[in-house]
Design goal:
By secondary structure, the chain is mainly alpha-helical. The protein has two domains: 74 residues, Winged helix-like DNA-binding domain superfamily/Winged helix DNA-binding domain (Arc Repressor Mutant, subunit A), CATH 1.10.10; 141 residues, GntR ligand-binding domain-like (Four Helix Bundle (Hemerythrin (Met), subunit A), Up-down Bundle). It is built from twelve helices and three strands; from the N terminus they run ααααβααββαααααα. Strands 1-3-2 form a three-stranded antiparallel beta sheet. A hairpin with a 5-residue loop joins β2 and β3. α2 packs across α4. The radius of gyration is 18 Å and the shape is globular. Pfam families: FCD, GntR. This is GntR family transcriptional regulator. Keywords: DNA-binding, Transcription, Transcription regulation.
């Protein structure tokens, strides 16, 4: 299964952008994005998906043509992305994609657990029937895709990326804090970047984790959900490191 996943996602890595646009920015796509906003979104997606590899130089002239914006706009966008640690500014030498490292992965894992557990607690307190319905729907879609992946069908890998996000987002969607959601989203994306670099699916353990998280969330068991989430994230980080793709 892991080998099939690796081959499929290596071939299709550039197309992850389609799914990220679809599930992350569906509301924004209903409005008229400026060229700069569109370029920011596309560059960010390319950084997370690995289409712009860690440690690579970002050549402004090539990027200008690829993202259809001026060099000055590109500089503004890349400067903004330095605040998320996705890009490094090198002074007069331009910009570089942030490298991937074991240390950052483990820091992101810890930060994700801290933020997501807090958001889950708020959601468990405030969540209503609509919140439960979102969670049920998200888990149903995720589990359907995971059954296909476990059955040896890697063609739904990109859907899994989408529905994994939707499931975790649904759990925290009643936290009533836009700032917390935005911060968690940024950390989730940076953590996802490492999973996409590792190019492998954990298989049944991650499916079991999601099922248990769903059950605990429906029962509003905060202690159990946070313990399960901690295990889920830490095992995910360990799996990425085991892949040998992160220095």
């Amino acid at each position: 299964m892991s080998q099939q996943f690796s081959s499929y996602i290596s071939y299709n890595i550039g197309y992850i952008n389609f799914y990220m646009i679809d599930y992350r920015d569906s509301a924004k796509r209903m409005t008229n994005e400026t060229a700069g906003e569109l370029a920011l979104r596309r560059i960010r997606e390319d950084l997370i998906s690995g289409a712009l590899p860690p440690g690579s130089k970002i050549k402004l002239e090539q990027a200008r043509d690829r993202y259809s914006v001026s060099v000055s706009t590109l500089r503004e966008i890349l400067s903004r992305l330095t605040t998320e640690n996705l890009v490094i500014a090198e002074g007069q030498r331009g910009f570089e994609v942030s490298p991937a490292s074991r240390r950052e992965l483990l820091e992101l894992a810890d930060l994700r657990v801290l933020l997501e557990c807090h958001a889950i607690g708020l959601s468990f307190t405030a969540g209503d029937l609509d919140w439960e319905a979102r969670l049920v729907s998200a888990h149903h879609k995720l589990s359907a895709v995971e059954r296909s992946l476990l059955g040896g069908d890697p063609s739904r890998t990109l859907e899994w990326v989408r529905y994994d996000w939707e499931f975790h987002q649904a759990m925290v969607s009643a936290c009533n804090s836009a700032t917390l959601m935005a911060t968690l989203s940024s950390v989730f994306d940076r953590f996802l970047r490492y999973h996409l670099l590792a190019q492998s699916f954990r298989g049944k353990p991650v499916v079991d984790d999601h099922k248990r998280l769903f059950e605990l969330a429906m029962n509003r068991d905060l202690a159990g959900a946070c313990a399960m989430l901690t295990k889920h994230v830490q095992n995910g980080a360990a799996h990425v490191l085991k892949s040998g793709r992160i220095p």
